[in-house]
Write a structure and sequence with these properties.
By secondary structure, the chain is of the alpha+beta class. Helices cover 40% and strands 20% of the residues. The protein has a three-stranded mixed beta sheet with strand order 2-1-3. The longest helix is centred in the C-terminal third of the chain and has 15 residues. The chain starts with 15 loop residues before the first helix and ends with a helix.
Length: 89
């Protein structure tokens, strides 16, 4: 198991091969202002090359989020997750 932290200033500076070869990917992101964090949105956009090459096709994926407040609109975050993950895995 590996933890890959996304650098908010350089989200493309990742070990893409590690993600490509993983059996599953678990995504975790904080909920900010009822939405995904900016760095994760940038990361998701950077996965477009993965999608074009179908590198993550049929990969097992899971997601979680956390916010400082009980409401925080985590449902909106999961909706964004679902839409994004269905596009790339």
């Amino acid at each position: 198991m590996f933890l890959i932290q996304i650098n908010k200033d350089k989200p493309n500076n990742l070990d893409w091969d590690l993600l490509d070869n993983a059996g599953a990917i678990i995504f975790g992101v904080p909920t900010y202002m009822g939405s995904l964090a900016r760095s994760f949105k940038i990361f998701m956009e950077a996965t477009s090359t993965r999608w074009a090459q179908q590198k993550w096709k049929d990969k097992i994926a899971a997601a979680f989020t956390n916010s400082a407040f009980y409401s925080g609109d985590k449902f909106a975050v999961f909706s964004s997750y679902f839409t994004s993950l269905c596009s790339i895995v």
